[in-house]
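Reviewer comment 2.1 asked that we show a complete input and output for one of the modelled complexes. We chose the histidyl-adenosine monophosphate case, as it is the one discussed in the main text.
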Amino acid sequence: MSTKIQAPKGTVDTLPAESWKWQTVERIAREVAELYAFREIRTPIFEHTELFHRGVGEGSDIVQKETFTFTDRGDRSLTLRPEGTAGVVRAMIENAQLNDQGSRAKVFYIGPNFRYERPQKGRYMQHHQFGVEAFGIAEPAEDAECILLQMDFYRRCGVKDLSLRINSMGDRDSKMRYRDMLVKYLTPLASSLSEESQRRLSTNPLRILDSKDEKDQKACAGAPPASESLSDKSRSHFEKVQQLLTEAGVSFVVDSTLVRGFDYYTETLWEVTAGGLGSQNAIGGGGRYDGLVEQLGGRPTPGVGFGSGLERLLIALESQGVELPSQTKPLIWIATMGDAAKPVTWQLLSELRAAGFSADMDLTGRGAKGQFKLADREKAKFCVIVGDDEVKNSTVVLKDMTTTQQQSIARSELIAKLHEALKA
Ligand code: HAM
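Response of the prediction step:
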């Protein structure tokens, strides 16, 4: 026998018994996005490498260390998308969705992303996000709408123990001012920083603030908060977001150490953590990115959105003991007793499917016992049994697999009876 090939590390297979959970959270995501009037967008899972360098940022950890980049057969450098925002912005510009002054668009997506990160619980090389992006709406109410949508999604999935942290980096000038302020504060402390953060001091000093390294955290303890460098406009934008969240009854904390891993963020940033996840507890995060569309060659257009990790959501639900509502169709199993019944059951199979039932039967000629065993294994809700007598009398035996009760009914009544039984 040849050696077995295993899945690449940091990837997860979703097996048939578990896939309904994915279908359920994706269905809830679509429903909630639709309620807030966001429409779906699908973009490729790979893009030109340059998009992420220009979009996500040269100095970000993601671009420096975590991308899956390859040269294709035509010698082009391509990268598997590490996140959704840059590709969505590229697609919106390229397809002339943001061309006119005052263009406005609200989109959502569900799909895989790829990051070369050390795998652990809740952190994978391939993960999936439900994300939304709203373009053309600079008002703080749009930041609030995205946050409300995100929290609504979690509420509908039943996830508990959530905490929302928000911060503001301000507009581009405020952010630059803050960066300078932080460098001035940290430079005399450089030797006490981790090696990584010493490097970041020149490449991406803001990221030092959310370093997990104790040395860095100690050095940052007295750092000035971003709020000190906010322009008046940015301050009032951030205050309005907070006011709207408070009015909507959403609890949050302002966390001045919250910075997020992408260079594109301006103004409001947020992150939501959930209990039951361990150290990788960020279940979703987002923010405003008012300069990104222009930076990627579009007309200046504000943007705001979030991405929410679906693996982490499912882990949180599982460890919190929350049962997702299953919408899988109950299975009707058809059992054939003897050769005379074969054409009848084959026909019944089509009839049930045409009437919208999930139906299945054994096609390999198992005996009665084997067929019932299969029906149990497949968790059938009802069994429709046809033998010689039933063929003769144009009847079927309908067996409820939960109660094991069975009754003989006219074949012509089967569909109506099943509808009735499943409604009860
Ligand atoms: P992000 O915070 O990097 O933001 O990712 C969003 C969420 O994806 C995280 O909070 C986490 O739940 C999940 N996630 C990220 N990396 C992994 C991983 N390696 N394994 C499992 N789950 C992971 C973004 O990606 C931004 N594009 C969000 C955004 C949209 N901002 C504005 N618009």
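The longest strand covers residues 105-114. We note this here for comparison with the apo prediction described in Section 3.2.
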